[in-house]
Each structure stands twice: as C-alpha cells, then as structure tokens.
C-alpha cells in the first residue's frame, strides 16, 4: 500500500473532520466566533498530524504558497478579532490556493473509504 495509515494519521483525519464539523456548525449558527475558532484549531492540528509537522511548516512557509498562507492566517486572525464573515472568506480563498494541488490525491484517498467511495463512484 502506497499510503500507510498509522494511528497518528487516523487521529489527524479525525481532527480534520471535527474541524470541518465545528466550522460548518459555526457558519450555520450565524458565524459563531467560538465555534469557528475551535474548528480552525482542530483543522490545523489535524493537517499537522496527517502530513507531519515539518511538512506543514514547509507548506505554509513555501515561497510559492505565500499568498494562500497569508490569506488563511489573516482569515484566522479576523475570526479571533470578531470579524467572522470576512475571516471565513479569506480562509476559504487561502485553502483553495494552498491545497489546490492536492485535490487529485484527496480524490484517490476518498475512493478508498468504503461508503464514501461507493457514493462518489455514482457521480
């Protein structure tokens, strides 16, 4: 298997899932600042556990990814200073720029998950 699933990576995937859930819940509950901040913390920690701390640092500090990194971190800052709508817009843009090259890998990974893979094959 090309991608070994260790316990640490499983915890990282779980934290990413919790981060997405809390962010979604924060948006649904009229941009609740606490839920959005908690979702961001879970998501960032999950990414760091999934790809490794050094790879996460290299992802955010890579010269080609400065635009995405700055916009994501600016969005995180704006959420903390009580501008959640503008912060979410900056974070979404930053995520698209940062992780634009990973979508093909994510698609292959999602096809391997039993229920999700079955659903995605119909679309």
UniProtKB/TrEMBL annotation:
InterPro entries: Got1 (IPR045176), Vesicle_transpt_Got1/SFT2 (IPR007305). It is found in: Golgi apparatus membrane. GO terms for cellular component: cytosol; Golgi membrane. Keywords: Golgi apparatus, Membrane, Transmembrane, Transmembrane helix. The chain crosses the membrane at residues 12-31, 37-57, 69-90, 96-120. Coiled coil: none annotated. One of its GO terms (biological process) is endoplasmic reticulum to Golgi vesicle-mediated transport. Its main location: Golgi. Belongs to the GOT1 family. This is Vesicle transport protein GOT1. It comes from Vitis rotundifolia.
């Amino acid at each position: 298997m090309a991608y070994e699933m260790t316990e640490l990576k499983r915890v990282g995937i779980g934290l990413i899932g919790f981060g997405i859930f809390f962010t979604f819940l924060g948006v649904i509950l009229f941009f609740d600042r606490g839920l959005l901040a908690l979702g961001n913390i879970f998501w960032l920690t999950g990414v760091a556990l999934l790809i490794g701390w050094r790879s996460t640092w290299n992802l955010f500090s890579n010269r080609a990814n400065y635009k995405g990194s700055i916009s994501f971190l600016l969005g995180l800052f704006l959420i903390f200073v009580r501008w959640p709508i503008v912060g979410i817009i900056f974070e979404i843009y930053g995520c698209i720029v940062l992780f634009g090259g990973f979508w093909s890998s994510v698609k292959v990974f999602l096809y391997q998950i039993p229920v999700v893979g079955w659903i995605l094959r119909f679309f």
